[in-house]
Q: What sequence folds into this?
């Protein structure tokens, strides 16, 4: 276990902790976190405390401190520059302290008055250690230290700038809510609490990362979540070894199941309503401070083809849209490989007219069919990545170049056949229909091009069986990701490939731990 930087500076001092748990507790729960913090107590002498704080922070320029006298007692106010709302700080903290007049006051009297007689902020907590001081300070709290008192008071007055709530960028919808998660974790918690006004909704927050101390929050309903899944999630997060956590992507490898698969068993969403729907089924949401995406565990493969709009449309149209998504997914993975396999090994399967046109166009190209497919799809991925990373004012240039490179110019120059352009275009359009699976599709389609160009339809069939076997073997915290398709459950199929109306869905009380094939359910049945 790594020693913290405070523990290294205080190797010979006693450690202790008097912090209590709570909603805004920054301590690490038992069994969770990246390390056990050294809990070095504050001293009673204010000057000694300030010297050590400056030493710990390496005299950083963004650490602001101001020492004043309150009723003849020296106190120090500390804050991190740019993290505090100046107006609230002046009105609710500086003014009451400056106007305070206590006779024969000492440090304990000032601390008692602050703790019992006045509310300086909505979040007001006492702490006793330097570790806790920096945890609060770097989270935007104002720290009050009093001479003669060996504890501090943290007041929540956060006022840092952040992006306002806006429409989700990756999960667009037509009928439903237009709100998406933002970077501050407490704003995201508020959006969830507005939608689920139940005392069983619980946020469990703690910091992770040796250096970043990034706040993450587990979100779940205490009356639907399975305690074994919750404990397993905490244990996996407790095994985190990264020094710094900057996004939800740092956590996914620790939460994903086995075996290795191109498909993820951890879901992501930037919609509060989607996350609320999932945790109502016994899932656990994981919010990470600084990123507008939430993680969802356990996660099922079929949920990649569902959206909030499906539940706003009439059932027949929502089911139709889902079937389109499944068809598009299979097209995006198999079409290039099937095209290569059929034209090279089984041309008799094509109509004579189409076969003649393909043969005529391919006679003018210098590459084999498989090489041609690999090259053009690789060029397409390069252009897509360039379009994503370029500044918006020049982003349209990629579209123009793409139309020339993959379109008319490439065919006219005899680099690729005209039929291959159609295959690339249809594959690209289909891959965007299910954006959450784009990573897997982008890689797997290259595998099937190589397999199809080497072994033909036999290779495609073997590859499909292996891919399906891998998907069926994938679990997420003991839940098969292919449920309820396999193992099959007729009742749960009401919201899978097709969607039943809300009269039927309203009667369905689905908990993810009760799905067929769940190892959690099997363990319960054995008891």
A:
């Amino acid at each position: 276990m790594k020693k913290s930087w405070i523990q290294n500076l205080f190797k010979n001092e006693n450690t202790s902790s008097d912090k209590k748990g709570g909603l805004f507790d920054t301590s690490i729960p038992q069994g969770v976190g990246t390390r056990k913090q050294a809990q070095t107590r504050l001293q009673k002498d204010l000057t000694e405390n300030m010297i050590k704080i400056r030493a710990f922070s390496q005299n950083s320029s963004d650490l602001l401190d101001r020492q004043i006298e309150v009723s003849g007692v020296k106190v120090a106010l500390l804050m991190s520059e740019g993290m505090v709302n100046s107006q609230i700080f002046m009105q609710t903290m500086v003014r009451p302290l400056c106007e305070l007049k206590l006779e024969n006051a000492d440090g304990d009297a000032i601390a008692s008055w602050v703790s019992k007689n006045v509310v300086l902020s909505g979040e007001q907590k006492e702490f006793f250690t330097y570790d806790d001081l920096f945890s609060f300070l770097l989270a935007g709290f104002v720290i009050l230290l009093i001479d003669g008192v060996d504890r501090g008071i943290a007041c929540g007055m956060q006022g840092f700038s952040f992006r306002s709530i806006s429409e989700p960028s990756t999960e667009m919808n037509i009928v439903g809510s237009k709100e998406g998660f933002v970077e501050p974790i407490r704003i995201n918690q508020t959006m969830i609490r507005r939608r689920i006004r139940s005392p069983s909704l619980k946020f469990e927050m703690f910091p992770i990362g040796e250096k970043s101390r990034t706040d993450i929050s587990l979100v779940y309903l205490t009356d639907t979540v399975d305690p074994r899944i919750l404990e397993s999630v905490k244990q996996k997060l407790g095994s985190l070894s990264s020094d710094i956590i900057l996004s939800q992507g740092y956590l996914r490898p620790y939460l994903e199941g086995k075996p290795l698969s191109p498909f993820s068993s951890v879901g992501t969403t930037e919609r509060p309503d989607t996350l609320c729907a999932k945790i109502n089924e016994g899932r656990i949401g994981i919010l990470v401070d600084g990123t507008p995406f939430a993680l969802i565990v356990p996660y099922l493969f079929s949920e990649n083809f569902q959206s909030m709009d499906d539940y706003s449309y009439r059932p027949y149209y929502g089911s139709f849209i889902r079937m389109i998504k499944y068809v598009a997914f299979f097209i995006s993975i198999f079409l290039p490989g099937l095209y290569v396999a059929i034209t090279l090994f089984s041309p008799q399967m094509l109509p004579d007219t189409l076969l003649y046109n393909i043969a005529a166009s391919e006679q003018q190209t210098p590459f084999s069919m498989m090489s041609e497919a690999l090259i053009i799809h690789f060029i397409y991925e390069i252009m897509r990545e360039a379009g994503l990373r370029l500044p918006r004012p020049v982003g349209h240039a990629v579209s123009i170049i793409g139309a020339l490179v993959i379109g008319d110019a490439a065919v006219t120059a005899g680099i690729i056949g005209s039929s291959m352009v159609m295959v690339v275009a249809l594959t690209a359009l289909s891959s965007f229909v299910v954006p959450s699976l784009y990573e897997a599709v982008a890689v797997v389609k290259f595998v099937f091009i190589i397999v199809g160009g080497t072994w033909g339809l036999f290779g495609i069939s073997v590859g499909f069986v292996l891919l399906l076997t891998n998907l069926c073997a994938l679990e997420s915290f003991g839940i098969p990701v292919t449920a309820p398709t396999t193992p099959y459950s007729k009742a749960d199929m009401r919201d899978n490939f097709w969607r039943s109306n809300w009269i039927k869905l309203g009667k369905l009380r689905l908990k993810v731990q009760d799905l067929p094939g769940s190892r959690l359910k099997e363990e319960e049945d054995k008891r």
Observations:
- The mean pLDDT is 83.
